[in-house]
Amino acid sequence: MRLRIPWRSLALVSTTALVTLTVHAAIASGAQPATVKAQGVSAVTVVTDGEYQTLTAALNVWTDIPGATAAMTVPSRWHSALIAVRFSGDFSGGGTTMRVLVDGVEANPVSVYKTTIGVVPQIAVDRSLVVGAGSHTVEVQWETSGGSLVETSWSLTVEAARVS
Known about the structure:
This protein is mainly β. 2% of the residues lie in helices and 60% in strands. The chain has one domain (43-163): Sandwich (Jelly Rolls). It has one helix at residues 7-10; strands spanning 18-23, 34-49, 53-55, 63-74, 80-92, 96-102, 105-106, 115-117, 122-132, 134-144, 149-163. The strands form two sheets. Strands 1, 2, 3, 5, 9 and 11 form a six-stranded antiparallel sheet that branches. Strands 4, 6, 7, 8 and 10 form a five-stranded antiparallel sheet that branches. The longest helix has 4 residues, at 7-10. The two termini are 19 Å apart.
């Protein structure tokens, strides 16, 4: 499901819109999808990078993508919030996988089937996690079994909505 919100609406804090996200957690183990309902997007952070660079890391070790991190604060008056993360970009590198962490915890869906970069250099990763009130850090990592990762541009979008 794709939710489109006009940018003009993001300046307003609205609790009238209802966002429903189906989280496919642990599908590999046969668990059923869970549904999280959240009221209106209340905060959005966007981080972008258009710098061409080649990243290197040790084989089979998760490594942060430089700059692909964002902070999000959930108000103390909220019991919990849905953090929705979208990471997309132009990359190339054989045997490379990516994941999204929120406070060091891999966001859903957590799966052995990670986003793999291969012949098609454009990737998009959508992940989410329900968190409590307070400050939260979102970061994107990559792992390789085949060498380096060439990055030409990427965008990280993090949204928070109050869980109903």
